[in-house]
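Predict the 3D structure for this chain.
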Amino acid sequence: GRHQVHNAALAVTAAMALQRFGYRVSEEAVRTGLTGCRIPGRMELIEGAPLVLLDGAHNPEKMAALTAAVEELFSGRRTVWVIAMRRGHDAVATLSALRGLAHAVVCTRFGAVTDWGVEASQPRESLREIVAGWGIPSLVAANAPEALERARELAGEEGLVVVAGSLYLVGEVRTLLRRS
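Done. Predicted structure below.
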């Protein structure tokens, strides 16, 4: 997405600034770093039918960047979103970026024990109520494997499944996809 261009420019600027403090960063090192940079769970595309895009976008700014990238890179595809969010995050503000873009949303939970303890996910039903209130078809799935299965069915072979809202959720789904 375009937001990654901004991130790359910031990284290059930081590398150049380090030179003022005696660190030597060659142009070749910067080029190698930029061409080889991959961040698991951030705009990570998993080939298949349907395609699955993993991005841990969990706040309004990150979700806005993700939805802009999806609109630009995958326009014309049916997009079904798998969403879980940690308690304490602003679900309404974050999920508002899905309006007009998501064809359906599957709300679920993650099972990870987090810095907030066990059961750190926001209730699935409350996430569903938010997106349903905007007229987005939505449903609840018990866990990440069920949510992924339902989303794939709803997206169809030519569609796109986007997993977002939590890096914990993305980690679970990524593990599932790597096993299959």
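The chain is about 45% helix and 15% strand.
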